[in-house]
Design the sequence.
């Protein structure tokens, strides 16, 4: 009788364990598939600008006595070089987020430094489009996390804001402290006056490789991984990324992250109890 009762109690636990293992396996397979897809995608995408650059440099040499043509080709070379830079940047970001436990080397990270780095990363692209970038409210705020990953997340949001905005618009970055459930958080909002995102697409943009307009996105070097990286980093830090957007008006992406003081204190309390 006892044995039966025990096995009845163990059985559901056992099947839950099996389920967990199966889920783990499929997750591992999924990650492996994404990695394979990614390498294939990026290798393919890298070939295009490299090929174009080599053709364009030949064209420049042939047109050396036609200054106007040289100008034109040089302009296109610059576009291809930007595309290459942004693809390589995405590779760097991806390698940064592949680390298993991002909080293993977590530290207080100054928000103004993250913002400055993100702005620096797209300064060139913003300059050619005459997009003004402005930041506010970042002084004295610290988030808790992996510096490289946080830089990748914010960098992607600012880069998208610049990429999906017309010339002579403004990109604003604003940070503030908010009292979220579970303690103080920092919100960093990136606002653009760009093309916006439809309600239908809003649900899908955080998926890996999803692009609203692949042709347009390819022109800016996108692979559709940026927002998946942002979402992954936010979640693994105990935060969240949300979007507000109106088509042809603009978008605001908000990254919410635990404030350094709170997270650190909680970790200390935890280790004191153990
Ligand atoms: P991509 O490399 O294509 O930029 P992301 O994952 O960063 O990939 O973004 C996915 C898609 O979401 C983009 O292709 C674009 O269509 C849309 N998107 C992202 N950010 C913005 C933005 N600030 N304004 C308008 N559309 C955006």
Sequence:
């Amino acid at each position: 009788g006892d044995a039966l009762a025990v096995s009845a109690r163990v059985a559901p636990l056992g099947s839950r364990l099996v389920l967990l293992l199966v889920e783990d396996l499929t997750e591992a397979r999924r990650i492996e598939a994404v990695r394979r897809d990614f390498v294939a995608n990026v290798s393919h995408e890298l070939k295009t600008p490299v090929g174009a650059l080599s053709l364009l440099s030949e064209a420049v040499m042939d047109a050396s006595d036609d200054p106007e043509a040289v100008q034109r080709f040089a302009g296109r070379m610059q576009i291809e070089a930007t595309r290459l830079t942004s693809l390589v940047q995405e590779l760097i970001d991806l390698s940064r987020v592949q680390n298993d436990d991002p909080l293993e080397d977590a530290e207080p990270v100054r928000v103004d430094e993250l913002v400055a780095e993100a702005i620096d990363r797209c300064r060139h692209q913003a300059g050619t489009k005459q997009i003004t970038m402005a930041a506010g409210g970042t002084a004295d705020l610290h988030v808790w996390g992996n510096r490289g990953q946080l830089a990748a997340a914010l960098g992607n949001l600012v880069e998208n804001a610049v990429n999906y905005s017309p010339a002579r618009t403004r990109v604003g970055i604003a940070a503030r402290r908010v009292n979220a459930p579970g303690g103080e958080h920092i919100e960093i909002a990136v606002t653009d006056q760009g093309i916006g995102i439809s309600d239908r697409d809003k649900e899908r943009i955080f998926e890996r490789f999803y692009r609203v307009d692949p042709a347009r996105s390819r022109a800016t070097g996108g692979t559709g991984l940026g927002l998946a990286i942002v979402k992954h980093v936010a979640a693994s830090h105990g935060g969240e990324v949300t979007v507000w957007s109106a088509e042809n008006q603009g978008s605001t992406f908000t990254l919410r992250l635990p404030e350094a003081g709170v997270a650190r204190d909680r970790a200390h309390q935890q280790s004191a109890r153990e």
